[in-house]
Amino acid sequence: MNRLLWVLQWMLAVIFLVAGVVKLAVPISQLSTQMEMPGAFLRFIAVAEVLGAVGLVLPGWLHKREGLTPLAAVGLLIIMMGATVVTFRNNGALPALFPTAVGSLCAVVAWERLRNPEG
Question: Would you kindly state where each structural domain of the chain is located, as residue ranges?
Answer without folding.
Answer: 2-115
